[in-house]
Amino acid sequence: MSQRQKKTKSRFVCSACGAQLPKWSGQCPDCGAWNAVQESILSTNEPTQRLRGYAGTAPDGIGGLVQALATVSPEPQPRHPSGIDELDRVLGGGLVPGSIILIGGDPGIGKSTLLLQAGATLGERESVLYVTGEESPQQVSLRAHRLNLPGANIQLLAETCVEHVLASADVQRPSVLIIDSIQTLFTNALSSAPGTVSQVRESAAQLVRYAKQTATTVFLVGHVTKEGALAGPRVLEHMVDTVLYFEGEPGSTHRLVRAVKNRFGAVNELGVFVMTDKGLRQVRNPSAIFLSRHDQPVSGSVVLVTREGTRPMLVEVQALVDQSPLANPRRVAVGLEQNRLSMLLAVLHRHGGVSMFDQDVFVNVVGGVRVSETAADLALLLAVLSSWRDRPLPLDLAVFGEVGLSGEIRPVPNGPDRLREAAKHGLHQAIVPKANVPKGGVNGLVIQPVLSLQEAINCL
Ligand code: TYD
Ligand code: MG
């Protein structure tokens, strides 16, 4: 280790202009940017990976072979199921050896719980090393007892120095390495405090190299900061193979795991869990869990059939339109895109003849779900209209469709799938884009195909 410390030097670099400084400074003397100077490792002639004990296990890319792409045969990625189906789903079918997976989320959302549960099932077949930088081994053991996993075959290591972690991993040779959390790790090569961007980035870089060289699957836990940005982890997103986000509403027990980047599978795949007193329980058929079943029709509420990854899901879109006391009425979207809401209200005015200049408009997706697809457009507008007119829509109505700027209703992917899902959950009517209606219709569903916003409004 001392040899290593001698050979690596750090320098300070302005992240705004790239200027190199001999020491830290609050303002960059070159470009004048504040708080942009960060410590980073100066590369020496000797690549850092050569200094590490695990060198020699695989070619490290330096002096690598130049070969024609056509002559390289694609190796099918072997997968190791984690034993938790909802997690495997977002990972694209299981763990890929040598891949590095970042799990981001608010503190307390359940990241440690999920990884401990996954570690326990993985431990039945593989060796798992769980590095805890935040909690003591006793705390982890307490959680394991609470999760009813006291006999889990997991090796524990309470350590925050990345060099020590890698040295232990070199001895243990785990096939799965869990780092909880990346923000607590630090490298001896840098003098800045753990949790700073440069420490997080350099620690992660060492773990990435280790994962690739030893074909170990590495999980990194990363906390999201108050501002919502993954202060550390955001800078990691490009370094890792897979980025999962753990989401959930405060006060709700539902937890969603979403893939936002995946080199080995589809993105926007969703895993759904419920946090119980015995840990996370999978929701295998989540298509209607976010639907609040009203007894009476209420105004401003519409059932949207959205698609998360590969499955259709029924969610309730709610709107509240109310006279605004403000000169600039509010446009608030929770779980939907704010800009899209403003745009759709403009379309509603121009092509539906309904003006909301003096109204506050709030829209919300029930249950803390976030819908980013444009298929929500039509449902959003119908919910807004229903609230504005104070006229409830039928309880058994399903809606989806994209609304274009000229007031046309455009088809969305997998229309028939969505319609069948709606029928499966006992809905009897649907207002959807014309091109999404299958030829023979859908059993049990009265479908109103629409081509324009005006037609959709007339349906009500
Ligand atoms: P945790 O996994 O520690 O969150 P993170 O690692 O993302 O910070 O989860 C902590 C929360 O989960 C805590 O508020 C308690 C709750 N919890 C349960 O409700 N049931 C359980 O079985 C466990 C282990 C935790
Ligand atoms: Mg934790």
Mind explaining what this structure looks like?
The protein is α/β, with parallel strands linked by helices and 460 residues long. It has three domains: 8-47; 78-284, P-loop containing nucleotide triphosphate hydrolases (Rossmann fold, 3-Layer(aba) Sandwich), CATH 3.40.50.300; 288-459, 2-Layer Sandwich (Ribosomal Protein S5, domain 2), CATH 3.30.230.10. Helices cover 24% and strands 25% of the residues. The protein is built from ten helices and 21 strands. The protein has helices spanning 2-7, 85-91, 111-123, 137-146, 162-172, 197-214, 338-352, 377-389, 415-424, 453-459; strands at 9-14, 20-21, 37-42, 100-105, 128-132, 155-158, 176-180, 217-223, 242-247, 254-262, 270-276, 279-282, 301-308, 311-323, 331-334, 359-365, 397-399, 402-403, 409-410, 429-433, 446-450. The protein has a nine-stranded mixed beta sheet, with helices on both faces. Strands 15-16-14-13-17-20-21 form a seven-stranded mixed beta sheet. The termini are far apart. The relative contact order is 0.09. Residues 111-112, 134, 180 line the site of magnesium ion.
